[in-house]
């Protein structure tokens, strides 16, 4: 019987663990720093075991990997290379939902030599986005056409009925990753010209997008889209864009948050001595007597601005103390977001993915093709984020175990032998994209 190891028992792990226990005959071990989390996922299943593991303990990590056939890392990406190097040494397949970093790609040749598959980016974004895109791209190529424009969008948000805070956003995981992403530069191709967006202008460069069946959202650039021209094999395209979707008002508000300095990691405060309000005053050089007026002046916005109303709602202008001790303004903001923008029991999230292609054919005809996923979480059950991130990885792991994916080396799911069976099975779970097309 094949043995599968899952490293990590965080917020997206449950659907993957339950799938592998209920739809395969593998022996499954979930290893986590907090063993009680792993035990809750296993639920006393006869083929599942939970183990306490500190991934910084190299000897313990080596031992647990040595006992598996396939290792699924749901750890933060900073730990992936430690796991990957042990998988090479111990001849184990590896699956992650994270982006392929250059150091992971560098293992490609050695993995091929050993007949090992290191399958990365098999989540939702990255993951389902790759698979849905390649399905359409290959279909166009098979009909003699070429892709001349591709805009790809994805967003995780509160579902409409649970969009009940003024920021229009909630975290189903630690906010730190989202906050750090707000500092990224962006780059994309539009009509044959490269458009570069420096991080400080990220939220000033956005547009409205209508997503069929979901509504109107803001779209802003998600990192560098140019490498996807090669990854997707669409070298004739004149436009290539990857964007993040958020509710209307998000970009302006977060732009002001950045300008105010709320994402500064270098500005330290002793929170055992000052309130949140006093920390904000220190940040902008205010005496604190009329903080709203000083914030408005610094940002050049009216005192009745919606951004200041949102700051008030978050508690950024309150006399609250936060239990952080010596920490940065960034840490304080992350703490407040994590405690205010939360999903309450029974609330559900919304996962949106929307692709827009323009295809051109030898007869001169042009076709617009869209592919749209609107998926919501299960009340009192798994979030859409957890399902769409972890189920593709679970299905791919089953295919590896059953010998149905015979690739070796470092891969992402852009090949038909990966994406066709994964997308087919996701549809049986009602995780699917609706395709529409029209001639231009």
Going across the major beta sheet, what is the strand order?
3-2-1-4-5-6-17
Number of helices: 16
At CATH's second level, what is the architecture of the largest domain? 2-Layer Sandwich
Q: What is the rounded Rg?
A: 23 Å
What number of structural domains do the residues give?
Answer: 3
Structural class: alpha/beta
Describe the sheet with the most strands: 7 strands, parallel
CATH topology of the largest domain: Dihydrodipicolinate Reductase, domain 2
CATH uppermost class of the largest domain: Alpha Beta
Fraction in beta strands:
15-25%
Labels describing this entry:
Rossmann fold, 7-stranded parallel sheet, 18 strands, globular, 440 residues, Dihydrodipicolinate Reductase, domain 2
Which helices and strands, and how do they pair?
Blueprint: E1 3-7, H1 13-23, E2 27-32, H2 35-42, E3 48-52, H3 58-66, E4 70-73, H4 80-90, E5 93-96, H5 102-105, H6 108-113, E6 117-119, H7 128-142, E7 146-158, H8 176-181, E8 186-190, E9 193-197, E10 206-211, E11 215-221, H9 227-231, E12 239-246, H10 250-260, E13 268-270, H11 276-284, H12 291-299, H13 306-314, E14 326-328, H14 329-340, E15 349-360, E16 366-376, H15 384-401, E17 409-411, H16 416-428, E18 434-439
Parallel strand pairs: 1-2, 1-4, 2-3, 4-5, 5-6, 6-17, 7-12
Antiparallel strand pairs: 7-15, 8-9, 10-11, 11-12, 13-14, 15-16, 16-18
